[in-house]
């Protein structure tokens, strides 16, 4: 009995120790995730920039009369303090200052970081006489989302300039030392060395170690070659993280001042969720969140807080303890990886078009490749905050980039089997074009023209990953599709469950209602005939066995 008691005590201690280790890992993961949401905090090279963090802010930012007034307007409910934060440097009682609103995942924000630090130094170095210092602030919209929402931030980074004792912001479109000085109302010296300084910054910022950093932000949609060298588990984990991150921070980022989505945004989001609903692998746990959103779409789209509550409800199941993107996707940069994960999700959807189109009943017109591509285009237009990423994709699409206007044409009745492969191939070509742009940008930063061989090395998949995909200058599209399936679709037999999509109110497709109904009736009739035939065929064998 004593031995049994000791064994039980030892078992309890071991369980407590294990629980403590797991809790510590969770806390460390959350702390790392919190740090990844800031670009300037805790960076020794960025001490000149004042990163806004509540624990360093004066108490008046999130208390006072406004808090009392807000509490009165929210009787019987919990006061949401975050909605009423007002950073002290956005009020009148301040000197000349510059404020950057940014998102840490945005490649252009990462690129602008070293320039923002350099601008602080240049402006204050060139001040005439003993003028007051111009402070530079940074606000992470991933952390202080309501602050950015109240400022109607539509893209990242957004730069505001304030004069001394003024709360009226001036939005800077072109950010230079001279423009900043004019906007904040200070006088700076003219310098013959300014051009040389800018050229040095462009080619070798921070002592020659920023070339890789400058190269990274050109990464439109996160489509980098590094992001492809991941396990399938990492690909799906990155995609799930980016999907949930987008729901929390992107869907309501570009809405009106009342925080309401317009009709086009609502339609684009609903069609995007429907697309994920029928294209993603049926066994993926992400469907628990997607299905809940579909069933409660109107309630979720009422407000950003409703959307965030929905994501929080499923976050532990969908993402578990994974709070950061894989190192191949983030390239070792804290907070990076969002766009890379979204690009992974796009690829998974593209393969799902091939694998899952037979499982859709009802609104068959919605699954045609041209409509899938349009759904992706509309999602990017309305819900990707990165201006250059959004403009690139929308302009490319609207100009029939990579001949998609012809390639993605399908007859609604019985499209040829090979026609479903055109969408993933088109998306793959867009991806490779972006890879080439990345290499060209990297060499251009060093004033070097990239050679043909160097551009070819940026194309994916490489000969090492898929020897049969390319012979000379010619791609084998069948081999490419097979490789895409290998990279982005689960192995084994998937549960072939049918999906029913409801008709959309699209006038141009109303004439197809009868044809869709007939097509579905033919399908069910054929299935019934096949079952009856199999039953009759088995009866003689059963009688023979009885005899």
List keywords for this structure.
two-stranded parallel ribbon; 547 residues; 21 helices; globular; mainly alpha; five-stranded mixed beta sheet
Task: Describe the structure concisely for a colleague.
The protein has 21 helices and 9 strands.
Query: Secondary-structure element sequence?
Result: HEHEHEHEEHHHHHHHHHHEHHHHHEEHEH
What structural category arises from helix and sheet content?
mainly alpha
Strand order, main sheet: write it out. 1-3-2-4-5
Beta strands, count: 9
Question: Roughly how many Å is the radius of gyration?
Answer: 28 Å
Helix residue percentage: 40-55%
3D shape:
globular
The major beta sheet can be summarized as: 5 strands, mixed
Number of helices: 21
Strand content: 5-15%
Give the low-pLDDT segments: 22-35, 74-79, 195-229, 505-516, 541-547
The rounded distance between the terminal residues' Cα atoms is: 67 Å
Q: What is the average per-residue confidence, as pLDDT, rounded to a whole number?
A: 78
């Amino acid at each position: 009995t004593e031995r049994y008691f000791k064994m039980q005590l030892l078992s309890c201690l071991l369980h407590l120790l294990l629980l403590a280790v797991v809790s510590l890992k969770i806390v460390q993961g959350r702390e790392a995730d919190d740090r990844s949401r800031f670009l300037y905090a805790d960076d020794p090279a960025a001490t000149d920039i004042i990163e806004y963090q509540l624990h360093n802010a004066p108490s008046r930012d999130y208390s006072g009369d406004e808090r009392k007034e807000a509490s009165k307007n929210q009787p019987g409910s919990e006061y949401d303090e975050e909605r009423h934060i007002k950073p002290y440097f956005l009020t009148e009682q301040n000197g000349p200052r510059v404020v950057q609103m940014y998102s840490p995942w945005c490649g252009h924000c990462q690129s602008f970081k070293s320039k923002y630090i350099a601008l602080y130094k240049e402006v204050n170095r060139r001040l005439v006489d003993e003028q007051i210092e111009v402070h530079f602030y940074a606000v992470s919209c991933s952390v202080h989302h309501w602050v950015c929402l109240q400022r109607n931030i539509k893209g990242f980074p957004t730069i505001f300039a304030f004069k001394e004792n003024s709360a009226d912001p001036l939005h800077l479109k072109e950010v230079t030392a001279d423009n900043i000085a004019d906007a904040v109302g200070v006088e700076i010296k003219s310098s013959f060395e300014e051009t040389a300084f800018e050229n040095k910054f462009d080619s070798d910022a921070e002592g020659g170690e920023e070339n890789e950093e400058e190269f990274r932000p050109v990464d439109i949609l996160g489509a980098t070659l590094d992001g492809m060298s991941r396990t399938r588990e990492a690909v799906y984990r990155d995609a799930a993280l980016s999907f949930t991150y987008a729901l929390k921070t992107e869907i309501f980022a570009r809405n009106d001042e009342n925080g309401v989505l317009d009709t086009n945004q609502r339609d684009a989001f609903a069609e995007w969720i429907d697309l994920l609903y029928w294209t993603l692998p049926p066994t993926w746990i992400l469907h628990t969140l997607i299905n809940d959103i579909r069933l409660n779409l109107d309630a979720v789209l009422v407000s950003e807080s409703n959307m965030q509550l929905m994501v929080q409800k499923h976050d532990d199941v969908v993402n578990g303890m994974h709070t950061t993107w894989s190192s191949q996707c983030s390239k070792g940069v804290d907070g990076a990886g969002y766009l890379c994960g979204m690009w992974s999700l796009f690829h998974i959807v593209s393969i799902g078009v091939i694998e899952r189109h037979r499982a859709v009943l009802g609104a068959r017109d919605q699954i045609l490749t041209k409509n899938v591509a349009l759904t992706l285009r509309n999602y990017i237009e309305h819900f990707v905050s990165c201006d250059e990423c959004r403009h690139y994709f929308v302009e490319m699409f609207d100009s029939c980039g990579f001949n998609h206007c012809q390639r993605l044409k399908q007859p609604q009745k019985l499209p040829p089997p090979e026609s479903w492969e055109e969408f993933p191939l088109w998306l793959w070509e867009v991806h490779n074009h972006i890879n080439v742009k990345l290499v060209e940008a990297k060499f251009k930063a060093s004033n070097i023209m990239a050679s043909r061989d160097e551009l070819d090395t940026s194309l994916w998949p490489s000969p090492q990953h898929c020897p049969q995909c390319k012979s000379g200058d010619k791609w084998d599209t069948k081999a490419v599709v097979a490789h895409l399936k290998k990279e982005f679709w689960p192995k084994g037999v998937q549960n072939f469950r049918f999906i029913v999509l409801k008709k959309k109110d699209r006038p141009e497709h109303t004439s197809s209602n009868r044809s869709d109904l007939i097509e579905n009736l033919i399908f069910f009739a054929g299935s019934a005939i096949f079952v009856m035939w199999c039953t009759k065929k088995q009866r003689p064998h059963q009688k023979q066995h009885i005899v």
